[in-house]
Amino acid sequence: MNISVVIPLFNKAEYIERAVHSVLSQKHPASEIIVVDDGSTDAGASVVEKINSSKVRLLQQANKGVSAARNVGVHAANAEFVAFLDADDVWHDDFLSNIQSLYQTFPDARIFCTGYEFNTVEGKRAAKNQHLLENRGLLQDYFLACCNADLPITSSSVCIAKDSLLKVGGFKEGLSLGEDQAVWGSVACQWPIAYDKSVSVMYDLTASSVGQSPSDFEQPSPHIFEFQRLLDDDIVPAELIGSVRYLQHLTVMSSVKSNLLIGNRMKALKLLLTHPLLQWDRYRVAAFFLLIMPKSWIARSYMALKHRR
Predict the structure, then answer these.
(1) 58/45 Cα distance (integer angstroms)
(2) Regarding the domain with residue range 3-208, which homologous superfamily does it belong to in the CATH classification?
(3) pLDDT digits over 249-268, tens only?
């Protein structure tokens, strides 16, 4: 199994060397490492140029966004499979060997993913997903696995067949959020996904979340409209339609939550009353009650729901 690794880079000079060395330290070696500098204004590109490895290639472009950077890397990749790693995340040394093992066990799969852990200011915790019932296997319903759980696939814990990625059009450029989820969803409608729950990736929230706040999520993530396109074009298998629609609903409800947490009750109310992708469930009903509650109660209520998940 030959694997090219694509790392999009934008102003992560203090992390990129760590990311690249985590790839170079893999038990199952990568064929190549393609770092795509997306118009960084820091010294990240210089850091990459100083890494002493013939496997590392640096591509540079004007700033076009992370999707464009990933697409450039995919088109430049020489291997049959492409794995992705964000510049501020880290692979454990068994990530690619776990991917290789999945490929040997599930040769018909076109996406392979592993477990991951969050690195936060409070410490590390493994991602939890109650929909993954076995330690490893085939993911029967990607969309359901995204509901009320940590995501089954992240942009640092995945390897995908290059031809399958290109067939779905690569990463959608112009999406501000959820561009990777749109891709995994498109592929999940057409090919099997194999997973291994072993934690093989560190997703570094201490770096990724800088400057991010609930106000960044006042509007629902636009990838739900890519899911709607899959539905409208009859690409979603019949047995997955209900899960796609419920995931769309939960994504809108996440935006309702963000608005409530920052005190934007009118925007939350408008979403609750008018958004066409919402369904009626306990979360929507509870949100109406939270509209009239003190702000401190809102945060406590959502924290309680999170612990019950």
Answers:
(1) 7
(2) Spore Coat Polysaccharide Biosynthesis Protein SpsA; Chain A (3.90.550.10)
(3) 999 999 999 999 999 999 99
pLDDT recorded at residue 164: 97
3-state DSSP assignment of residue 145: helix
Element (H, E) at 3: strand 3-9
Output Rg (C-alpha) for the chain, integer angstroms.
20
Structural domain boundaries of the chain? 3-208, 214-308
Using alpha carbons, select from 241, 273, 277 the residue that is nearest to residue 259: 273
Residue carrying structure tokens 């979403």: 271
Burial letters 28-47, b for 16+ CB under 10 A, else e: eebebbbbbbbbbeeebbeb
Contacts of 258 (CB under 8 A, 6+ apart): 214, 215, 216, 217, 218
* Closest by CA position to 226, among listed 167, 175, 153: 175
Hey, how many other C-beta atoms are within 10 angstroms of the C-beta on 107? 10
N-term to C-term CA, the chain: 37
Report CA 139 to chain centroid distance, whole Å.
16
| pLDDT (tens digit per residue) in 165-217 | 999 999 999 887 899 999 999 999 999 999 999 999 999 999 864 445 555 67
Name, in order, each residue with C-beta under 8 angstroms of 89's C-beta and a sequence gap of 6 or more: 19, 156, 201, 202, 203, 204, 208
* Residue 54: pLDDT over 80: yes
- What's this model's pTM, rounded to 2 decimal places? 0.92
